[in-house]
Design a protein that fits this description.
The chain has helices spanning 2-20, 34-55, 60-87, 97-104, 115-121, 125-129, 136-148, 152-162. With 182 residues, it is mostly helical.
Length: 182
C-alpha cells in the first residue's frame, strides 16, 4: 500500500517535470485561430502602451492619465497575457510573465528613450490614451471582427500590393542631358 503511494507520487512528479521542460512555442500568427491572432495584436498594443506609460513617470499629467488607462485596461491586459502565456508555454506564475510573453513575441520589454524624446512624447500621452482605439477590450472586439473575415488575408495582401510607394522629401536627381555627336 505504501509502495503504491510512492509509485503514484513518482509518476505525478515525473509528469510535472516533463510538462515543465516542454519547450516554449515559437512565435507565429495562427490565422486559423482568430481569437489568438486578436489576442496577439492587442497584447502588442497594450504592452507598448504600458512601456510608454512607465517611461513617462516624470510627467504628472501622463502619470495620471496612464494610471486611469491602466485601471480601465488592466483586467483585459492580464487576460491577454495569461492566454498568450498558455499559448507560448510560459508558466503564468513566473515573475514578469508579461515581459516573458513580449519576449516570446519578439516585442520590446523595455524602452530606452532619451530625455529629449520623452519631452516630445510624454506630454501627448494623455490625449493618446483617451483615444477609443486604446480601450483594449474594444480593440480586441474590433480585431476579432476583422480577422474573422474569411477574406482577411487576401484583403491585406491586396492592400500591400496596391499601396503606392511613399514619396520621399528628397527630389530625384536629374542628370544633365548630353548631346550626341554624329
Amino acid at each position: 500500500m505504501i509502495m503504491h503511494r510512492y509509485a503514484w507520487l513518482i509518476l505525478v512528479a515525473s509528469s510535472m517535470t516533463v510538462a515543465a521542460q516542454e519547450a516554449q512555442r515559437p512565435h507565429a500568427y495562427v490565422f486559423a485561430d482568430p481569437e489568438l491572432v486578436s489576442t496577439q495584436r492587442v497584447f502588442g498594443i497594450g504592452n507598448a502602451t504600458m512601456l510608454l506609460g512607465n517611461a513617462c513617470e516624470a510627467f504628472p499629467e501622463a502619470v495620471t492619465s496612464y494610471d486611469a488607462w491602466l485601471q480601465r485596461n488592466q483586467a483585459t491586459m492580464s487576460s491577454l497575457t495569461q492566454t498568450l502565456a498558455t499559448h507560448y508555454r510560459i508558466a503564468g506564475t513566473l515573475p514578469d510573465v508579461q515581459a516573458r510573453v513580449a519576449q516570446a513575441m519578439h516585442l520590446p520589454t523595455a524602452l530606452d528613450l532619451s530625455a529629449a524624446k520623452l519631452d516630445d512624447v510624454c506630454p501627448t500621452l494623455p490625449a493618446t490614451l483617451a483615444l477609443p482605439n486604446l480601450d483594449l477590450q474594444q480593440r480586441y472586439q474590433a480585431s476579432l471582427v476583422e480577422v474573422r473575415d474569411p477574406d482577411y488575408l487576401s484583403l491585406k495582401r491586396k492592400q500591400a500590393i496596391s499601396t503606392p510607394p511613399v514619396e520621399t522629401s528628397t527630389p530625384p536627381v536629374e542628370t544633365p542631358a548630353t548631346e550626341e555627336t554624329p
